[in-house]
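Reviewers asked in the last cycle whether our approach scales beyond single polypeptides. To address this, we selected a multi-component target totalling 906 residues and predicted its structure end to end. The input consisted of the following lines:
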Amino acid sequence: MTTDIVTPENADQVRDMVAWAVDSQAPLNVQGHGSKAGLGRAVNIGTTLDLSRLSGITEYSAPELVLTAQAGTPMTDIHAALADAGQHLAFEPPDLTGLLGGDPGRGTLGGLVATNLAGPRRVQVGAARDHFLGCQAVGARGEIFKAGGKVVKNVTGFDLCKLLAGSYGTLAVMTELTLKVLPAPEDTRTVLVLGASDADAARCMSRALTSSHEVSGAAHMPAAAASACEAEAVSSRGTSVTLIRVEGPGPSVEYRAKALCRELADFGETVEVGSGESRLAWAAVRDVQPLTEPLDRPVWRVSVAPTEGPGVVDALRRQSGSVDCLYDWGGGLVWLSLENGDVAGQAERVRNAVAHAGGGHATLVRAAADVRAAVPVFHPQPEPLAALSRRLKDNFDPARVLNPGRMAEGL
Amino acid sequence: MKMPAPDQGTIARRSEIVEALRRIVPGEGVIVDEDELQAYECDGLTAYKQLPLVVVLPETTEQVSRVMRWCHENNVKIVPRGAGTSLSGGSFPLADAVTIGLGKFNKILDVDFDNRTVVAQPGVTNLAITSAVAHEGFYYAPDPSSQIACSIGGNVAENAGGVHCLKYGLTTNNLLGLEMVLPDGEVVRLGGKHLDSGGYDLMGIVTGSEGMLGVITELTVRILKSPETAKAVLMGFPSNEQAGDCVADIIGNGIIPAGLEMMDKPAIRAAEDFVHANYPLDVEALLICELDGPAAEVEHLIERVEQIAKDNGATELRISRDDAERATFWAGRKAAFPAVGRISPDYLCMDGTIPRKALPEVLRRMREMSDKYGLRVANVFHAGDGNLHPLILFDANQPDELEKAEAFGADILTMCVEVGGVLTGEHGVGIEKRDLMPVMFGEDDIKQQQRIKCAFDPDHLVNPGKVYPTLHRCAELGKLHVTGGRLPFPDIPRF
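The resulting structure, written as structure tokens, was:
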């Protein structure tokens, strides 16, 4: 169908657009660069509200640990400004353009927070939600409002920002966001443990994360994923690779990496790699690069208790043919690449495995649009929670003009 | 501060309500005698007192659910209560509401070191979580100063912080799962031992909702391995400005300390007189900077902090040689509230957050206000994250002094908002700061927050009278006010 694209330049114009949408009962496809259009439930919406002209950092004071930028600011601009001041977004925002298709580096700050993504450092510092301090937004009655604050510690009123993070633009249109930023680590070391089975790797990651070495990343690539990894430090090993990361001042990371090599030696041969190689390897984990190809395979993102990750994969391997996977978050985040085919049946198997593992959630991250329209992309909620989510949508967007159906039918 | 007028109809139905509650919670679990109810007449905000209609102490989630369902069906308000340590009146009772005390939910249900989680009932104290895992070298990071008494369920309701939250986050960043009873009695589970959720972040909005969205009956928190070592630096400065600059430079140099606390001269004096921590008395401001982590890192960073302190003109500089000395550095800071309690019959503890760069201006204006009101003020400050705790000294037995102290406090918080900060950093709004909400939030801002309330509790039966000066009727909030047939914006670029 034809799409009308409107590109407002300021919050007032966004407000006018939303008011028009309510008036005309014309839903809006709210997006930034559209780099995550393939993420979430597929919907057909006639008018696109493109926020990419709402761009620019409005306030950044490094010692205050706070950055404010317009919603459509490119992530590349944010990363560059922070790097200049020796800081970063600690939750390690992934760039999924490789996995989902699209130009590398595309994506906006608003889109990042609206999808609540986070990379390997999630285990130590949290996700986008944990660093999202405040915003200005336009509600679905055409009103400009603010939520949260511009300081790092604030409990004034309900934490509306938590609700907006990860709501895929279905509750309000964020126009300006304030995030907590942190000093970037001076140095990085990664300890690679070679040849561990998935189950042993889970134990290895658990031991690393329960050590006092302040591990900031614990991931595992089974042999297939490892060989597909674009970081040579990983792909050259010819076997599975478990990655344990420490960050901080030079003398500290040296000491901790040595200690981890000793403490993890009974899981396999250990190898220590330095900053440059570490960065490449963790970027691959963060962006799920080893599972990018083959491009037609559905990719799932499963979150369970860390010790349960390998069990989920085992259960699926017993039921389906080929299962490629990559573990992050100490085993709690399992990326699955499964055979293309009956994705509805696959969804049931994956979600049953999650339930059997004590609960969690499974999101269909990559699939053709018609599949993402038919198969629930996000983990279906028990009815009382689904009803609560619908009541939230009813209260925030009764006319269903903001990204309707993007998360689930009726939301 | 005025609470909504109690509903006389509910009060008249008291014996019927008591009877219904006794059918759900048998034995001693329903408290009706006035002398026993007095234990529940206030929380940590002791300036206000009110006997609850009745107190019920359920022991199971099912009992909480049945109490909530009955109250919902019979249009009776409820007030959830943990340990009753809220400094903002979050569990302040109402004459026409049932207080649901969670004191009997006092068990730790599961400790899972491999997944680094603890599952606990809400009445367990904050410190008890750490105590349950300390033998394996773990701890629970958020550490509000009331941690020996405050309940973990109350921590979730208030999104409690503490000295360590600059590095380790508030409660919301350390919470993984909840079981809660919704206002209509429905029991739901949010999160678990896994991270994040697939849909709306309901756990995120329940955290810090000050008991207004339901009653928490179980929770899962993440625990951390205790740091290998910790050291503290004690620094004295001839001016607040220099101390403030030192804080900015520490963070500007990429160092995130485990704790970074500041005290002004009146607070130093009061603390020193009380605990004799050997604080220098000839300085205007004192900083305590604690670094924790691997020994190699702590040693390295301590040297850098020392240099930064010297560069900013520190006149006093001590580095803890062992844990005993580190504890001495902290002793005065940790005893600051009772220390101030010793030098004044009463005090109010405020809790605003400011951008740190505004600190010198805020302290200067606070001194002017202190002169204007004729009341002394001492300041302790979570300097790392800009969270200010001015303690206003007054005597409630003097006519009008409580009112004057409250007006002084309101002026301070209004100033915090003026300089770009917020009304509360960790204590919550409760009833204490409720009427100041419009200082920080406009009508449309507050309406959006209340839409959450309407999704959870459209009848406003759970913890009414807290956080918001007025609760809009949900039917009114739900209306769509459309602007009416305008053609859109010739001036917006379209493609």
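Chain B has a mean pLDDT of 94. We regard this as preliminary and will revisit it once experimental data from Aim 1 are available.
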